[in-house]
């Protein structure tokens, strides 16, 4: 009994310290989010200028729709020229013309399929030539057609998800980070997902690739931030994009599910101010409460959300 009491107090103290540290970290993230979103309202434009801080050219992968296109538009709105990288030549041309006309910046388009691995990265580097990239946004991604059990997912889809979500972000960072190091400045934004926070049944491989991005980005920041390179990890929850079009429940729904334009407007504001961000204020709240629950509970809830989304998709498909 005495031994039990001997250990109880230290364990209770350790538990209290862990809770306090978690709360302090969460409060700090909330304060950082407020700073990122409010600073443009109170600081002179030049002090919040991404163009002045990083330079005139950004490269965005997966940039012809969804978050990638919206992020490219937000950068262009700030006077930054954009290199648009995606698979479809026609959509690239259309997006480039739209951005040039609306924001009066330069654009460059590169057609590359990141499911081809290093070949796509080599294509990007070859097409760029000596053009320096000041901001790299690794946005390209692929997920399941709808929530599925592993054996239901086509083999090629699984290989593509791994190649695009893991291979592309890794090799694109490697391709550009040394030049940023030599210049002593630059920014890399790796777009992940809130699904990284726990194992996610019925999106098993997709969630695992996003957990990789989280870990990879944090380690990369440790290696290279001392060279003046901003390395940001973005982890949005649901955004109304083509990627989530398998369910009507995931289409824009009040303030919890923003469209890509609304999301990108806030996400770009956090660049250079937050290393880790959900990118959108309500997603930050969701992240806070998600982290507050144990992993087993997050996994259980995530599984049931995906089961309902799967049911919704199959029901609508059968009606067609």
TrEMBL record:
Cross-referenced SUPFAM superfamilies: NAD(P)-binding Rossmann-fold domains
Any Pfam family the entry gives: adh_short
Chain segments annotated as transmembrane: 7-31
Alphabetical list of Gene3D superfamilies matching this protein: NAD(P)-binding Rossmann-like Domain (3.40.50.720)
GO molecular function: oxidoreductase activity
Taxonomic superkingdom: Eukaryota
CDD domains associated with the record: 17beta-HSD1_like_SDR_c
GO cellular component terms given for this protein: endoplasmic reticulum
Keyword Isomerase: no
Keywords assigned: Membrane, NADP, Oxidoreductase, Transmembrane, Transmembrane helix
Main location: endoplasmic reticulum
Keyword presence, Ion transport: no
Record localization: Endoplasmic reticulum
PANTHER family (alphabetical): MIP25013P-RELATED (PTHR43899:SF9), RH59310P (PTHR43899)
Family assignment from sequence similarity: Belongs to the short-chain dehydrogenases/reductases (SDR) family.
Protein name: Uncharacterized protein
